[in-house]
Amino acid sequence: MRKHFIFLILLLISCELSYASGTKINGIWYNLDSSKKTASVTYRGDYYRNYPDEYHGNVIIPSSIVYDGKTYTVTSIGDYAFYLSPLTSITIPNSVTSIGLEAFAGCASLTSIDLPKSITEINTYVFNSCTSLTSICIPENVTVIGSDLFLNCSSLTSITWNVKGLAHDIEEGYRPFRSIGKQITSFTFGENVERIPSCLCFGMSQLTSITIPKNVTIVGHRAFEGCSDLTSIVWNAQRGSDCSSSIDPFKNIRNQITLFTFGEEVDIIPIGLCANMTNLTSITIPNRASTIRKDAFSGCSSLTSVTIGNSVTGIGDAAFEYCSSLASVTIGNSVTGIGDWAFFSCSSLTSVTIPNSVTSIGGSAFSGCSSLASVTIPNSVTSIGESAFYRCSSLTSITIPNSVMSIGYGAFSNTSIASITLTAPSIENFCQGNGNLLLYNQGVNCERKIQINGAEKTNIIIPESISSLGEKAFYNCATIGSITIPNTLSIGTDAFTGCSSVTSITLTAPSIEEFCQGQGNKLLCDQGLYCDRKIQINGSDVKDIIIPNDVLSIGDYTFYRCASLNSITIGNGVNDIGFIAFYGCSLLKSLTLGNNVTTIGESAFGDCSSLPSIILPQSVTTIGRSAFSGCSSLTSITIPTNVTSIDASAFSRCSSLTSVTWNAKKCSNYATPFYGIRSQITSFVLGDSVTYIPDLLCDEMVNLSSITIPNSVTTIGNTAFCTCTSLTSINIPNSVTSIGNLAFNDCSSLTSVMLGNGVISMGNKVFNNCTSLTSITLPNSLTHIGNDAFYNCGSLESINIPNNVMTIGAGAFDGCISLTSIEWNTKNDIYYYSEANTPFYSLNKQITSFTFGDSVKYIPNYLCNGMENITSITIPKNVVSIGNNVFTNCSSLKSIIWNANNCTDFYVAENAPFYDIRSQITSFTFGKDVEHIPAYLCYGMKNIPSLALPSNVKKIGTSAFEDSNIKSLIIPNTVTNVGKNAFRNCSSIESVIIGKSVASIGENAFANCNSINSVTWNAKHCSSFGICYIGYIDGELFQIFDSSPFTTNVSTFSFGNEVEYIPSCLCLGMKNLTSITIPNSVTSIGSGAFYGCTALTSVNIPQKVNSIDMMAFAGCPSRTSITVANENSTYDSRNNCNAIIEKTTNTLIAGCKNTTIPNDVLHIGDYAFYGGGSSFTSMTIPASVETIGEFAFGECPRLYDIYCYAVVPPIAKQSSFSNYNAFVHVPCESQRYYVLDGIWNKFKNYECITSDNVTTDGVYTTPSTNDVTIIWPIETGADSYVIVIMKETEVVCTLTFNAEGQLLNIAFAPARNGSRPAQHTQYAEQTTDGYRFTVTGLEAATHYTYDITVKDIANNTIKTHSGEFTTQSNTPTPVDNIPSSTINCQKIFRDGQLLILRDGKTYNMKGQEL
C-alpha cells in the first residue's frame, strides 16, 4: 500500500512536469510534440486567463514552424488558445485538423473566420461570445463537432453546412447551434452533404425555407423540429431515408408545411416523407420517380388532387391514407399494384379510374371512401383484397370481371348492395355449391333467399344421402323456419349462421349409439341455433335414455335442450361428459352416473332444474364450470376424494343447496364453485382425506359458525375462509405449513386462533380485519409473514416475531391500534427499502416497548423509525448488522445498552443507527463481551457524561467516537486496532492510555483532540497509523509525513515496560515534550518517531534497541544529551560523544549541538543533525569520515563553521548541508580538492587549516617535507606515552615520554639519519589540545603510520591511538597537471583508493596520472 501511494505521488509530479510552458515562435505560442513533429497553437503561460492580450489584430497561423533545427507541422489549435484575445481576423492553414475547447472564446472583435477543409474536429464552445461574428461555414470533412459552438454569438444569423457526414449523431442537449437557434435566418446545405444529423436545425424559429441536396441519403430525427416559421421545403434527395416516429426530421412542424417541391431527379419518395403535412394542398410527383413508398402522403388532409406519373410502378401501402380532401386521382399506366390502405378514408374521392396495368387491388385500398359512387375494375385485375371497398357507402354499382380469381374478406362490406338471391336446381345441388361462401368472403352480408328449382324454400330437410354441408351454405337465409338434419351430418362453418327465423330442430339417428357419436346438435349451436330439440331414434321420439356401456364419451351439446327427456342412465363405459351435454334438460328428474366417469364438462347438467339429487362416483376428478348451475332442486352435495379440479360456479344458482361435504384430497384447481349461493351454506364438513384447502373454498360463507380442519391438511389456500363473519375460533393443526393470502380476511368475530407448530408461511392479509382478535402466538416454525397480515386487528396488544421469520410484508400490523409492545426475535436478515415498507410504520407513535431477543443477528433498515415513545433499547450480543435509519425520529430514545459482540462497521456516519438522534443520547453502556465497536457507532454523542470501553474489545472502528464528549480514555489491552478518526474532535479528552495489544491506529484517530496533554503508550508493537514514511526510492531519499495520532499539545508521554516498537511519527511535532524515557523492552524506533519534539533535551537509548529508523530524533534542536546504554550491541555513544553511532558501519545516525564526532566514525548518516536549530553553530568533522548522508545537516541555518579534517573530501549529497554560506575549514594541502569537488564547491567561504590538520581520536598531525608535528591528548592516570612511527611494516623510530611530557627516549632504526628535535628542550610542548612534539629526519613524500600507547604506573596499557600521515614532496605538486575543469570530473573508488577520472585518464589525489 505504501509503495502504491508513493508511486502515485511520483506519477502526479511527473505528470505536472509534462505540462511545460509553450514555445513562442514569431509571436505565436505552441505546444510541440517532438515524437510526432507536430505543433498545437496554445496560450501563453501556465493559465489561459493570465495573458488575454497576447494575441491581437490579424493573426496568421503558418502551416509549419521550425524550432531547434526541427520542422513541426501545425495540426491543431489547442484549448483556450485565443481565449479573450482582441483578434480582428485569423488565418488558419490547411494543415490544421482540430480546434480545441473555447479556442476563440471571447474574441469579441472577430467578424469572420474561414475554416479550411482540412478540419475534422471542432470542440465545444469554440466561438463562445464571438459577438461580432455574423456568418460561418462548417467545412465538409468535419466528423466530430462539439455542443454550443457559438454560445453568446449574438450577431450570427447565417450558417452554411458543408459537412458530408459526422462520425456521431447529435443529441438535443448537445447541438452545435443550441443557444443561437432562434436568431438564425439562413441555413444552407452544401451539394456534397450526405447525412444531415439529428437535431441539427432544432429550434431555428426564423427559418422559412430549406433545400435538401440531391446526395442526401439520411436526414436525422428532429433535424428541423422547432423551426416554427418553416413552411417551404425543396426535396432534391434522389434516394432519401425513410421517416418514422423514431426518425422524423420534421417532428412537430409537419402541419405548418404549405409547400413541398420535389426535384426532377428524385427516384424514390421515402416512407412517411410528407405524412401528416395537413396544410399541403397539391403535390406533383416527378417524372423520374418510380416508387411511392408506404405512408408517403398519409394524413395530408388538405391535399385535393394528385397526379401519379407514368414512371411510377407501385403505390405503397397507405400512401394517401386519410387524405380526406382528395377529390381526384390520376394513376399512371405503369402502376401494377395498389397497396393495402393506399387510399383509405379518402372520404372526398368520388371516382377513380384504375388503368389496365393494375393486377391487384390491396386490402382496404379504397376502404372508407364514402363518396365513391362508381369504380371501374379492368380485366387485368385478378385479386381484390380484404375490405378493398369496405364502407364505400355511396357505392351503388360494381363491375366484377371474370378475371377476378379471389375476393378478400369484406371486400364489399358496408356498401349499398341490398339483397342477394341464391339459386339451385335441387337441395342436394345447393348443398354442394359455394356461391354464398364467395359472397361472404366479399363482405356482402345482406339477407339471402333460397330458390330451389324456381320455388322459395322455408322448411329445410337435409336427406341422409348428404354427408356434409359446406361452409356458409345457408348463411343469412333468414326465411328458413325449421330444420331436420341427421345428427351425424358434417356441417361447415356458419352453414346456418344468420338463419334467425328457425324455431324447430329435429335430430335423427338410427340408434342411440350413433346419435352419441354425432355432432349435429353441437354444430347447430355453434351457428347460433338455440331452440329446443327433439330426438328421433329410428323414426320414433324418445324421453328415457340408457346409454350403453360401449359408449366411451358423451360429446359437447349431444343432448342440449332436449327438454322432453325424463331420465338418463349413463353406462360404465363413459369417461367424459362433454360441454353442455345435457344442458336445458329441464324435465330431467333421474340421473345415474357410471362408475368410470372422470370428467363432467362445463354446464354439462346446467339448468336441469327438476333434478333433486346426484351421487358423484369416486372416479370423478374434474367438474367443469357451471356443471350443475341452475339445478335449483339440489339440497346437498358430496365432493368425492379424487376430485382435483372444480371450475367456477359449478353449483351456482342451486338455490336449495345448504350442506356440503368436501372429501377432495387435493383439489388444486378450484374457482368458487359455490358462487352466488355461499351465504346459504350452513354446514361445511372437511373429510379426513383432505390435504389441501383450495383457494376461496369457504369464501363469504357468512353463516358458517364453525369449521374443523383435519390433521391431514398441509396447506390452506388463498381466501379459503375469507369473510366467514360468524366464525369465532379456529384451530390450525401442526400438519399445516402454509396459510394463503386473505385466508381469514374479514373474519370479524374471530377471537381465538391456535397456530400449529408446523406453520412456515402466512400470506398477505391472512388475518386482515379480524377486529376481535386479542392475541396470537406465532410459532418458531414461521418464516414468512405477508403484507398486511394483521391489518386492522384493532384488539391485538402485543406481538412476538419468532426467530426464524425471514420476511414481514409492508403494513403487516397497520391499523392494530391497541398494539404497544413488540418482541423481535428473528435471526434472519430482512430488507426494507423505505420506512413505509416496514411492518410497524403506521404504529410508530403508539409503540412504547420494543425488545430484541438474543437470537437476533440482523436489525433491518427503518425497523424502529419514528417510534417516538421508546426510551431505551438494548442491542443483543449476536447482532452482526444494523440497517439504515433504524432509530431515526425516535425522539424519546436516550439510553442504549450495546451488547453486540461483532457488529459490522457502518459505511458512513449517516448510516450509523443513532446518527440522527446522537444529540439526545445521555447513556451508552457496552456489554462486557463486546469485541468490535463498529465505525461511527457513537459519532457525535456529545451528551454522554462518561463512557467505559468494554474489557474484551479488540477493534474500534472508523470514527466510532468522533465528535463525542469523552473526557478520559483507557483503551483496554485487548484492543488490536483503532480505526481512523476513531476519537477525532473529542475535544474533552485530557489523557489517553493505549493498551498493549494495539497494532494499528488509523489516520487522525485523535485529530483535534486538543486537550490531550498526557499519553501512556503500552502498545508492544503498533505497526502503523496515518501516513508516515521515510526511505529511498530508486536510490533517492523520499519522505512523507502526515502527523502523530496525537496533537502537538501533549506534554507528557510515557511508555509501558512491554513496548517493543516505537512507531514512526508517534511523537511527531510534540513541541511541549521535554523528556522521554524509552523502556528497556524497546528493540526498534520508527522513522520520525520523535521528529519535531523541539523541547526534548535528552535521549537515552536502552540496551535492546537494534533498529533506529531515519529521522527518529530529527528536528529536536533542544537536545543537549544523547546516550546509549553500554550493553547495547548495535549502537553506542563512544567517548561520551553525545551521539548515536551504529557499531557495524561506524555510522553516526543521530547527533546534537553538543556532539563530538569520534575519530573512528566513517559515515554521517541521513538526517543525523537535521533540524539542529539556531544554537547549532559549528561542527568538527574528523578525518575518518568518508560520507555524509542526505540532509545530514539540513535545517541547520546557523551552522556557520564546519571543520573538516579529511584530506580527501567526504562524499556528500546535494542536500547534505542547508547553509552553503558557512565557513569551511579544511587542511591547506586539500583545499584545492574541496574546491574542485562537485558538492563541496557550493561553499563560497574556505579557510585553510595550517596545523593540527589531521585528527584521529584527539590526535593531530602536521607533516612537512622531512618532519611531522604530533599533538596527542593528555590522559588522566597516564604514567608514560610511547610513540612508534612506521613506514609500511618497518619501525622508523620510537619515542617515550613521561606523564609530564618529558622525552625519556628516542631511537631511530639502524641506517636512519633521524635525530632529536632541533630545540634543546627534552619536553613536549603542552597545548590546549594536549602534548605537541616535532619528529625530524623523515623521508619526503612518504606515507607513515603511527601508534601512541598510553600506560599507567604498572605499565598497563590504558589507551591507544593510531593514525597516518604523508610527508610533503620536495618537487612541485603534480596536481597542477590535472585539467583545471576537474569540477566536472568523476570521483571513483578503486582498490580502496579515491581517484579522479577525466577525459579517459586517471589521477590519484596527489595529481599523479596513473
Radius of gyration: 55 Å
Biggest beta sheet attributes: 8 strands, mixed
Q: What is the distance, rounded to the nearest whole angstrom, between the alpha carbons of the first and last residues?
A: 50 Å
State the share of residues found in helices, binned by percent.
Answer: under 10%
Tell me, what's the shape?
Answer: flat
Number of strands: 105
The unreliable regions are: 1-21, 1251-1256, 1311-1321, 1372-1394
**Could you tell me the strand content as a percent range?**
25-35%
Structural class: mainly beta
- Per DSSP, the total helix count is 6
Give the overall average pLDDT: 85
Describe the structure in your own words:
- The chain is mostly beta strands and 1410 residues long.
- 4% of the residues lie in helices and 27% in strands.
- It has six helices and 105 strands.
- The two termini are 50 Å apart.
- Residues 1-21, 1251-1256, 1311-1321 and 1372-1394 have low confidence and may be disordered.
